[in-house]
């Protein structure tokens, strides 16, 4: 935990003598509570892909995010309050990720580190990749990059601390874990031929019923008036040059008609010569 400076906690209109600034603080309970949480974030030691290497570098001696009170990376979700999703999230990994998130005690926060965790990244069109972990668990901070640099991750951690500083114990929307009753766990997705979110079970059942009836489902249907009607003319066989009628020849250009006539005559002589050669043979 970072060193406490009483002057950082001053949030009152009552003046405090200068000689007591470092010993006395008049502040709110929310600010004391937020200061204690922001200065002792315990990330979960959890990584998925190449972003995890950058997260390890951030915790090493060169960048050292222990300056922010986050040096205690826990190996158990029961002792963690920050889940950093660092890497590509496949459909097979969504199930343990949601289970780990449910095992973390409140208050807990989630950071999507990198393009893959935020929206699928370069593997977005892959059949086995989830287009963003926020489809299954709530995300508090997004860190862009592929992969993000340690500086970007530190900036994301500072942004999370700023978010914590803005929370108030008087507003249950900011601190839902102090609400009435226990917080509901996120339903663990069901992994089968494809991953299924139990919260969408009713929608899936409706689409299955529509598919069984042969009705369109799962895609946007254009109205009939908006669909362009394309008429395909029947393909007719091209008539032979010798079978063209005299009327067709009269409608075209005279010079072209003369060339066609010469060609027809040449073809007729060729056929006659061929027939004569076959008769002699």
Describe the 3D structure:
This protein is mostly helical and 281 residues long. Helices cover 35% and strands 6% of the residues. The strands form two sheets. The chain has a three-stranded parallel sheet. β1, α3 (91-103) and β2 (109-113) form a beta-alpha-beta unit. It is elongated and about 130 Å long. The relative contact order is 0.09. The model is unreliable at 240-250 (pLDDT under 50).
Relative helix content: 25-40%
Distance between the termini: 112 Å
**Main pleated-sheet profile:** 3 strands, parallel
Mean pLDDT: 79
Rg, rounded, reads 37 Å
Count of structural domains: 2
Low-confidence stretches: 240-250
Beta-sheet strand percentage? 5-15%
Please count the beta strands (DSSP E, at least 2 residues each): 5
Give me a quick take on this structure:
With 281 residues, the protein is mainly alpha-helical. Helix content is 35%, strand content 6%. The chain has eight helices and five strands, in the order ααβαβαβαββααα.
Describe how the helices and strands are arranged:
Elements lengths: L28 H10 L11 H10 L22 E5 L4 H13 L5 E5 L1 H5 L21 E3 L6 H16 L24 E2 L3 E2 L4 H12 L33 H6 L2 H27 L1
Parallel strand pairs: 1-2, 2-3
Antiparallel strand pairs: 4-5
Helix pairs in contact: 1-5, 2-5
